[in-house]
Fold this protein.
Amino acid sequence: MNHLGHKIRELRESQNLLLRQVAAELEMDTALMSKIERGERNASKQQVIEIAKYLKANEEDLLTLWLADKIESTIVEEPTIAYQAMKIANKKLKK
């Protein structure tokens, strides 16, 4: 399970919502919602925003987890150079 999926499941369960309830409200297939929660499928940015609204979650927090998952999935295949690449990217972001 990825960071975003774990958080979505945590929020959903804390509100006693069924997976199918959330999926129906978001006009999403239940199987897709389940895959997002399990980290087997990536949500789009718009889907994350809609999920945040429906679950009354902080949109920025969920988008941060979404982006962290995207970054992690990109660099996981290059563990020896990933840290150096992230340091370079971080310097550019600070400018």
Summary: Residues 24 and 79 are 39 Å apart (CA to CA). The domain at 3-94 is CATH 1.10.260.40 (434 Repressor (Amino-terminal Domain)).
